[in-house]
Structures are given as structure tokens and as C-alpha cells.
């Protein structure tokens, strides 16, 4: 099967994230026999990544954009989210206390990347000085995600 | 989809029904409404998520923030959520152990539940 790539470039405006979700879920539903739950997982993961990409620009969003590359391969779907904002250091993301710890309530933010990692089969974060690329993969065959985050 | 918020009172509970998509664009409206409810003196709040089609980490953060505010005043914030796609977001993040999540508004406001 030949690779097919769709490129979606959106201005860095949060009101357009819903449009990205719509495009991604439509592509997933029409091009692959992913069940509804997996489509929802991919939609949420992409939405989180696009949110992070827009937030990487801070308040300086004028003329800025986020590009989403959708690539369909024989055994997987791959979605890459690219920005040219200020990169981030993954190793410096705060670890959340256990859910049984009352200190957990201090963490209103920072749930996006753990969510992304749990929802897709592979999540590759490549921050750099020139921006960040996040590549999300969903396998469409026997390598399907089992629901165990430890297996990722 | 536009976010719709509808408030009512059941006994001493303030019930906020949320419809639509909660993401980084719409979540500030939810946050503002919850702060307004808490500022008016409500101590027992139910957020009904049955009409929510999409909830992201920003929405979770808003709910966690409201829970924190209420608990600091000896209050509580319970949720109504039966949709698997929304409930899954709480499960993945472990927040099912932080929030009381009910099957219905009636169950939440009667004080029983998980």
C-alpha cells in the first residue's frame, strides 16, 4: 500500500483545535477500521499535542501556525504535530504525586503529556530550539495497544 | 461545538450541567462559572458531564482546581459521568480516585455513590 500523507496547517488559535479534531477523527474513521474508542483516543492525543504546540508560542501567536501531518501506512497511522515555538525539556516536567496523596490537587496542569502517552501506541517528542515535533502512532494490526501503559 | 452551561439547585447542591466540548478554548468559561458558583457561597457542587462530547486535560485541570477550592472550604465537588469516552480520561489520569463520580445527578445529590 502506498503511503498517503495529508497536511493540515492551522493558525495558532485555540478555537481551531476543534477543527483539527474533526479532521483527524474523520480521516481515522474513513481510512481505517479503527474502532470508535481508538479513534477517540487518537483524537484526544492529537488535540493535546496541538494544544501544547499553540501554547509553545505563548502570547506571540500572530502569524504563527501548527502543522499536522497525517500519514497512513500499511500497518499504522502516524500523526505528526509540528510547531516552531519555544521547545521544552521533557525531563523537567513535574511528576505527579500518587492519586492517594492530597498534594495531587496542586497539579491542575501537566496532565496532557501523560494522557498522550497512554492513548497512543507510540509517542515521540522531539523538542529543539527550532520548535517541537510530536509524532503519534497507532498500530492497525496485531500490534494494537492493549490498554496497559506499562507496555508502551 | 459550543460549550453550554446550565445551573440549577437541588437541596443544598449547586448542579452545573455541561454540554459540548471542553478544551483549552472553552475551559476558561467553565472555570469562570465554577469560581462564580463557589464565590456565591456554594459548598456542595455537582458537575454533570453527561452532555460532554469531549474533555481534555485543560478541562480536567479546571475540575481539579474547583475541587481544591471547595475542599479548602470544607466543601465537595462531585461529578456525574457515565459516558465511557469521558470516564476513560479520568481513569487514565487516576482522577477517578480523587473525584466522587456518580451515575446520575439524583445519585450525586442524594449523597450516595462510589
The description of the largest β-sheet of chain A is:
5 strands, antiparallel
Total strand count of chain A, please? 5
SSE ordering of chain B: EEHEHEHEH
Oligomer: heterodimer
Number of helices of chain A: 3
Rounded mean pLDDT of chain B is 94
User: What is the highest CATH level, the class of chain B?
Assistant: Alpha Beta
Shape of chain A: globular
**Number of DSSP strands of chain B?**
5
Q: What is the beta-strand fraction of chain A?
A: 25-35%
CATH superfamily of chain A: Histidine kinase-like ATPase, C-terminal domain
CATH homologous superfamily descriptor of chain B? STAS domain
Which runs of chain B of at least 5 residues are low in confidence (pLDDT < 50)? Answer: none
Q: What spatial form of chain B do the alpha-carbon principal axes imply?
A: globular
| CATH topology title of chain B | Transcription Regulator spoIIAA
Name some characteristics of this structure.
heterodimer, A: 152 residues, alpha+beta, Heat Shock Protein 90, 5-stranded antiparallel beta sheet, 3 helices, 28% helix, 26% strand, globular, B: 114 residues, alpha/beta, Transcription Regulator spoIIAA, 5-stranded mixed beta sheet, 4 helices, 5 strands, 38% helix
Strand and helix layout:
The complex is a heterodimer of chains A (152) and B (114).
Chain A: E1 4-11, H1 17-31, H2 36-55, E2 65-72, E3 76-82, H3 112-119, E4 122-128, E5 131-139
Chain B: E1 4-10, E2 13-22, H1 27-39, E3 44-55, H2 57-71, E4 76-80, H3 84-93, E5 100-102, H4 105-109
Parallel strand pairs in B: 2-3, 3-4, 4-5
Antiparallel strand pairs in B: 1-2
Helix pairs in contact in B: 1-2
Write a structural description.
- The complex is a heterodimer of chains A (152) and B (114).
- Chain A has 152 residues and is of the alpha+beta class.
- Chain A has a single domain (4-151), classed as Histidine kinase-like ATPase, C-terminal domain (Heat Shock Protein 90, 2-Layer Sandwich).
- Chain A has helices at 17-31, 36-55, 112-119; strands spanning 4-11, 65-72, 76-82, 122-128, 131-139.
- In chain A, a hairpin with a 2-residue loop joins strand 4 (122-128) and strand 5 (131-139).
- The longest helix of chain A has 20 residues, at 36-55.
- Residues 142-152 of chain A have low confidence and may be disordered.
- With 114 residues, chain B is α/β, with parallel strands linked by helices.
- Chain B has one domain (4-104): STAS domain (Transcription Regulator spoIIAA), CATH 3.30.750.
- Chain B has helices spanning 27-39, 57-71, 84-93, 105-109, and strands spanning 4-10, 13-22, 44-55, 76-80, 100-102.
- Chain B has a five-stranded mixed sheet with strand order 1-2-3-4-5, sandwiched between helices.
- In chain B, helix 3 links the parallel strand 4 and strand 5.
- In chain B, helix 1 (27-39) runs parallel beside helix 2 (57-71).
- Chain B is globular, with a radius of gyration of 13 Å.
- At the A-B interface, helix 1, helix 2 and helix 3 of A face helix 2 and helix 3 of B.
